[in-house]
Amino acid sequence: MSTESLVPSGGSEDVHQQNVAPPCKMPVTSVKLGIIFGFAVAALSVGLALGILWPNLFTSILFRKLILSPTSMSFGIWKETPIPMYLEIYLFNWTNADNFSSTATTKPNFVELGPYVFKEVDYKVNEVWHDNGTVTFQQKRIWHFEESMSKGSLLDKVTNLNVIATTIAYSIRHRSPLVRQFVNTLIRTTGETRITTKTAGELLFDGYKDPLLEMGLALNYSGIPYDKFGWFYDRNNSETYDGTFNMFTGATDVHKMGVIEKWNYSNTTEFSGYCGILNGTNGDLWPPLPDN
Length: 292
Hints:
membrane; single chain; CD36_fam; cell membrane; scavenger receptor activity; transmembrane helix; 30% helix; alpha+beta
């Protein structure tokens, strides 16, 4: 038998066409259309619901996080200052104080010293949480001298006006000549003058003893609160110097969060009128704006 008799008369092209089946299309049924339509409606409904409810939902979640409590996210940064703070102090040394008098024509000359840099850390202590959405606390501040950041030493000698003697003299300026003469004699007997030279550390946080202060303390004069004088004396590491605060936590009204309700158990100070009303925060927490 020859090989030619094995090949059909239509040729190889006819064989190829007979073996290839036409593509089969998947039938689309009403069930599949219903499923697709259902998913589309559900997705659209979820999208519309989120679009409408998301702002309120987001605000609700955010406000719950903002409200101050011992377990809230904001408690840690409120309890202790989270960023470094630095206090820079400049002093002025009176270089020609010996030439100064009431009749002198020479102008006083001052030389700027510093800055003396102190790192400050603030802590909230003695917290008491109340059911009315407030917390009562005290504030402790700690200052540490940063010598590497400062220009000068706390041992630098600084000549200034004698603040205590000058203040006493100024307070009696309108009294009778007899009273002024008596006080002037009293000041002279202590050896005090209108000029004093102290170290930078004594003038700032350490404080220094003064004969006039000691005399006032010996006489039990109630107007003298400290046994030393210094511009920041008795403030470093004190829990009571800044007073006692009562502040809204936001639990009852988030738009009051951080607002001071009372200071030293009163909502007013000794200043008269609107200036004496407590109205604001102490700068640690700020309430959200009511329109946002």
